[in-house]
Amino acid sequence: MSRRNQGFTKITTEMVLRAYSIGIFPMAETADDPSIHWIEPKRRGIIPLDGLHVSRSLAKLIRSDRFQVAIDTDFQSVIEACATTHGSTWINLPIRSLFSELFEKGHVHSVEVYEKNQLVGGLYGLALGGAFFGESMFHTVTNASKVALVHLVARLNAGGFCLLDTQFLTPHLATLGAIEIDRLEYKSLLANALSVTAEFPLRSEREPISGEDVLKQINPQN
After folding, report:
1. Which residue, among 149, 164, 161, has the nearest Cα to 61 in the 3D structure?
2. Which pLDDT value is given to residue 1?
3. Which residues contact 125 (CB under 8 A, 6 or more apart)?
4. In 10 A of CB 80, how many CB atoms?
5. DSSP characters over 18-42
6. CA angle 58, 209, 199 (to 5 degrees)
7. What pLDDT was estimated at residue 213?
8. Measured between alpha carbons, how far is 85 from 122 in angstroms, rounded to an integer?
9. Three-class SS of residue 162?
10. What domains sit in the chain, N to C, each tagged with a CATH number?
11. H or E element that contains 146
12. d(CA 70, CA 82)
C-alpha cells in the first residue's frame, strides 16, 4: 500500500515518527523524485534479534577486528553513501533532510565501518521504543555492511530492543536470518516493541568494541 505526498502538506519529523509508530514508512521513487510515498507493505521483513545468522567466515572476520566500527560519528557520510554507492535509490533530498533532523534529535542512529581510516560500510535507521527500523546500508569493501549489521544487533540486544524491522525481505537479508511476516503479525510485534523502554548507546559512548565482545551479544543460528 502506498500513499503519495507531493509537497502540499509539509512533512515534519513528528509526522515521520507517528507514521513509524503505526507501521508506515516514507520512500521516494528515485533520488530525483521530490515527492514522498508512505508505504505500508502487506508483508514485512524483520530480523529476529535472537536469530541473526553469522557464518563462520563472517564471525572470523569480526573477531579479527580488521574493521573499526563506530556509532553515530558520521551520519551524514553514511546516508550520503547509502544514497549514492549502489546506483538508483529511494533516498531523495526530503528524506535526507528529515532523517538528518531526526538524527540531531536523537531518534536516528548510524553504524560506521572503517578500514585504515576510510569509511567502507555502514547503515542507519530509526529507533522508537524497543523497535529499530533499519533504513539502508552500504559497502565499498566486501562484508563491511554485514559487519555493521552484526554490530547493530549486538547494540540492540544490549539496549533491550525487541524488534528489528528491515521493511522488505531481500535475498541478501535472508542469508543473514531475515524473515517475512504478514501485516497483522507485524503490527502485533510493533505494538509490543513500542511499549518497551530500550536504550541505544549514548553519543558519548564511542569507545571501540572488540569483535569478540560483539559476538557475545548475539545469539546466531549457525
Report:
1. 149
2. 56
3. 108, 109, 132, 133, 134, 135, 152
4. 15
5. HHHHTT-EEE-SSTT--SEEEE--S
6. 105
7. 87
8. 11
9. coil
10. 2-216 (3.40.630.70)
11. helix 144-159
12. 17
Amino acid at the residue 205: E
- Angle, to 10 degrees, between the axis of helix 144-159 and the axis of helix 56-64? 80
Q: Which residue has the cell 536504550?
A: 199
- The answer, as to whether pTM is greater than 0.85, is yes
Joined together, the cell numbers standing for residue 115 give 578500514
For the chain, residues with pLDDT lower than 50 are 2, 6-8, 203-206, 220-222
User: Taking Cα atoms as reference points, which of 190, 72, 69, 214 lies closest to residue 133?
Assistant: 190
pLDDT one-digit tens code per residue, 120-166: 999 999 999 999 999 999 999 999 999 999 999 999 999 999 999 99
What was the pLDDT predicted at 32? 87
